[in-house]
Amino acid sequence: MQPLEVGVFLCSTGIYDPFAAVAKLKELGIRACQLPPLPPDFLTEENARKLKAALEKDGITATTQFVGFPDESYADMATVAATVGFLFAEKVPERVAITKKAIEFASTIGVPAVAAHIGFVPEDTSDPAYARLVDVVREICDACAAKGMKFALETGQETAEEMKAFIQAINRPNLGVNFDPANMILYGKDKPVEAVGVLAPWVISCHCKDGEWPVEEGKLGSERPLGQGQVDIPAFVAKLKEIGYTGPLTIEREDGDDRIGDIMRGKALLESLR
Ligand code: MG
User: Fold this and answer.
1) Cα of 27 to ligand 1 centre, how many Å?
2) Fold classification of 6-273 (topology level)
3) 3 state DSSP class of 7
């Protein structure tokens, strides 16, 4: 894997069997990927060993394991607030247990980091949910640290300054961010290129995704193929280089009916910029 290697978020292929998706990446000439949230039942040692073998056979490096949970939905702002992450005390034990299974799974494969959407971090730091999130993320960071791994927060559901303050409150050396520039726009939160500067010390990995600002109250903005939205992808990649980022440029494409075509056009764009 080269510095700024162009990778793909495995689920963005639209192929949900991870083995078939890895085979597709090999066919496309992709050498880096992030592993998607996988069903909790799939997170066994046997499956980890099989997936590790498939990745090695095809010469693909998995750089992050994402974690997601049953019953999450990103349909609109209110649904995200009501279903995503660790905000709901009654769901925290089950979701922490799933995260720990994913850490074990990723460790068996040799993936160096786990990442997740943790839910909207409350703007009011005296909200009891804020302290609860701090505790949960510390527990997850410590579980990752025990395996020599990092934990990355997916960006974009809060401003860069709010995220920075939250990371400082958690105060764990193995905590960072998976910087998603489009999310900052889709959730109407922040200007992504400037935000890279604010979060520079914590950027472990990134999503190369594009999108447009929301136009309707309560709805997210629209995802767009890479280079066709309002992120300014050339400026985003230039900013990553300016802060000294050398990890993979991982394409995320979760919308549209030509995912593979969009991925390949995105790859060509990123290769002209890296
Ligand atoms: Mg993302």
Assistant:
1) 24
2) TIM Barrel (3.20.20)
3) strand
State in Å: Cα 37 to ligand 1 middle. 12
207 CA distance to ligand 1 middle (Å): 5
d(CA 218, CA 197): 28
3-state secondary structure 208-257: ECEEECCCCCCCCCEEECCCCCCCCHHHHHHHHHHCCCCCCEEECCCCCC
Q: Whose CA is closest to 192, among 203, 182, 202, 200? A: 182
From the CA of 252, how far away is ligand 1's center (Å)?
6
36 in Cβ contact with 17 (< 8 Å): no
Per-residue pLDDT tens digits for 137-153: 999 999 999 999 999 99
pLDDT bucket at 231, cuts 50 / 70 / 90:
very high
Q: What is the pLDDT of residues 83-112, one digit of tens each?
A: 999 999 999 999 999 999 999 999 999 999
Whole-model pTM? 0.97
Q: What is the pLDDT of residue 59?
A: 98
What's the gap in Å between 146 CA and the centre of ligand 1?
26
> Look-up: residue for tokens 């950027």?
203
End-to-end CA distance of the chain: 14
Residues with Cβ within 8 Å of residue 197, at least 6 apart in sequence: 239, 243
CA of 154 from ligand 1 middle (Å) equals 6
Q: d(Cα 115, Cα 227) in Å, to the nearest integer?
A: 25
φ/ψ (deg, to 5) at 143:
-65, -40
